[in-house]
Write a structure and sequence with these properties.
Layout (H helix, E strand, L loop, with lengths): L13 H8 L9 E5 L4 E5 L10 E6 L1 E2 L9 H10 L1 E5 L2 E2 L3 H11 L5 E3 L5 H9 L7 H7 L1 H9 L1 H7 L9 E5 L9 E3 L1 H6 L9 H13 L11 E3 L10 H8 L9 E3 L5 E3 L4 H15 L12 H9 L3 E5 L4 H4 L29 E8 L6 H9 L4 H9 L6 E5 L4 E4 L8 H5 L12 E3 L10 H13 L16 H27 L7 H11 L1 H17 L1
Parallel strand pairs: 3-5, 3-7, 4-6, 8-17, 10-13
Antiparallel strand pairs: 1-2, 7-14, 8-14, 9-13, 11-12, 15-16
Helix pairs in contact: 1-6, 5-14, 6-7, 11-18, 18-20
């Protein structure tokens, strides 16, 4: 299907936008035609059903393996609402990227990619080949909710528009999720045992606290088995769970690329602040304040130590998920500290936009209907439906006019999140949707509200900002970046571990910098600077 591009029109007043975001209304007179492979079917531009005659489309998505998608009440009800039957060609989440690559290579594409995590390189590559179709004109005609979102949030449009001017995928938009990475948390029992009533504000105060943990037996077992700070290694990076927070103490926002307040892009591994971070971490390592298994252990191994009340500072979504037990407000969130070289810590905030969540392929016989289907997920009604499941199953309204809800009891023997995962596909995958505070209105516990307050006081009020926006590289830029990073990322990762553990003394910093420059570190910054400048002026 060929799409003729039209100029964007900013026509909707704020009142109309609010109305659109309320979800799909009753069926209207505005209609379109779509070829469903065996003839013509009418596509209604408003309301349900979406199509006048039932059609069947194929969808490929990552599956977490808790419930077959055919049996999920949300998807079953979507079939009834829309008149669109989905055939699911899913792959396990852990092997989804491999399966996705094989599908693209095969030429036998699903009609829809859902929660596919399509990289900007994949969008550009398969978009320019015509495998993924442009969506911008379809958005104008068939996606009122998403169109309103773009008009209210220009950065979303900038972040999903490829250098060739096309939009090849729809994103996950989570403006209310502020964490760039899971926070770090203090073990509240240790703070109490050491009579700490004021959290560290500088790197020296943090060092002093960690030293006290090591030497003063805060778990009270008479053994020097406390671990002041513990981390893990994943396939992505060493120390990734704690690095962002400790880098920030030296004025660095992120471990590879960030942009400063003057719009200059930096390659972190060449920065003086990164050297200061390595020096500090080496100090923690040499005095056994940083867990010596941090470069080898899994998250489960770290948790086992914490659940034996041995770990003082660690990263997780919430503290109790590492420590065990029930949610507790006694384990405070880490407040970013600063070194002597900066006036305030650099605090990274989530950009709120994850591209590549939903795309339509050239094999799709009904792109208009497909876009109307997903547009529902960007309304309050649809986002709630896909996040919490059908009304009356996991939740119910207590005040519908004001969107206030309460949870219902889950079946005996089931955890709430495990039960939710049987209702909806939007569990543990980057599914297309708009996250908004009203979805959880009335459902937040006292603990949830406490976490929000901790986030506000310790991150947002302290100047947290997005370190680098979601943006596109051209195909040529992406090819060059990928080539450079294939060796550069490995070298930087290896050298970080060597500098921190002392296997490579920090006197070797200048040689390291020379090697990184020779391998293309400065070129990585240049390429990203060009892409950022395009994004900024888009």
């Amino acid at each position: 299907m060929q799409i003729t591009r039209k100029p964007w029109k900013i026509l909707l007043s704020s009142a109309v936008i609010v109305g659109l975001l309320a979800g799909c209304g009753s069926s209207g007179a505005n209609e379109g035609k779509t070829d469903k492979g065996t003839g013509e079917a009418t596509v209604n531009k408003e309301g349900f059903p979406i199509v006048s005659e039932p059609i069947t489309l194929s969808m490929m998505a990552p599956d977490v393996g808790i419930q077959n998608w055919e049996n999920m009440p949300v998807l079953q009800q979507m079939k009834e609402k829309t008149g669109i039957t989905m055939e699911y060609k899913n792959a396990p989440k852990d092997s989804f990227d491999t399966k996705k690559n094989l599908v693209f290579a095969s030429g036998d594409y699903p009609d829809i990619f859902y929660a596919a995590g399509l990289t900007t390189a994949e969008q550009m590559n398969y978009g320019e080949q015509g495998i993924l179709i442009p969506l911008e004109d379809l958005i104008e005609e068939y996606a009122p909710n998403f169109k309103a979102l773009l008009e209210q949030n220009p950065d979303v449009r900038k972040s999903i528009t490829a250098p060739d001017g096309h939009i090849y995928s729809l994103p996950v938009v989570e403006m209310s999720q502020h964490w760039y990475r899971n926070p770090m948390w203090y073990n509240g029992d240790f703070l109490k045992a050491l009579n700490i009533d004021k959290l560290p504000e500088t790197t020296e105060e943090l060092y002093t606290y960690l030293k006290r943990v090591k030497e003063e037996d805060p778990n009270g077992n008479g053994t020097a088995d406390e671990i002041p700070i513990s981390s893990v290694t994943t396939t992505a990076a060493n120390l990734r769970d704690i690095r962002t927070w400790l880098l920030g103490a030296f004025g660095i926002y992120e471990e590879e690329i960030y942009v400063d307040d003057a719009d200059k892009v930096h390659y972190t591994p060449l920065e003086e602040g990164y050297k200061e971070y390595l020096t500090y971490m080496n100090r923690l390592w040499s005095e056994e304040l940083l867990d010596h298994e941090s470069f080898s252990q899994t998250a489960e191994q770290k948790k086992a130590k914490a659940q034996n009340n041995r770990v003082a500072l660690f990263s997780d979504w919430h503290a109790y998920m590492t420590k065990g037990g029930e949610p507790s407000t006694s384990d405070p969130m880490f407040a970013p500290v600063r070194s002597e070289s900066v006036s305030a810590p650099a605090i990274a905030k989530n950009r709120g936009i994850t591209t590549g969540a939903f795309a339509i392929t050239n094999s799709n016989p009904a792109p208009e209907a497909s876009l109307r289907w997903v547009d529902y997920l960007y309304s309050y009604e649809g986002a709630l439906f896909f996040n919490k499941g059908p009304e009356g199953t996991l939740w119910e309204y207590t005040d519908k006019d004001n969107r206030v809800k309460q949870y219902l009891p889950v079946p005996d023997g089931k955890e709430m999140e495990d039960f939710r995962a049987t209702l909806t596909p939007n569990y543990g995958i980057p599914a297309p949707t708009l996250s908004m505070d009203d979805i959880n209105k009335g459902l937040k516990t006292d603990f949830d509200l406490w976490v929000e307050q901790e986030t506000k006081q310790k991150l947002l009020d302290k100047g947290a900002r997005i370190p680098f926006p979601a943006l596109f590289l051209t195909v040529e830029e992406q090819t060059e970046i990928s080539s450079l990073n294939s060796d550069l990322s490995t070298y930087v990762k290896q050298m970080e571990a060597k500098f921190i553990t002392g296997a490579e003394p920090l006197t070797g910093w200048d040689n390291y910098v020379a090697t990184v420059k020779k391998m293309g570190g400065e070129r990585v910054a240049e390429i990203n600077q060009a892409a950022y400048d395009r994004w900024k002026t888009n």
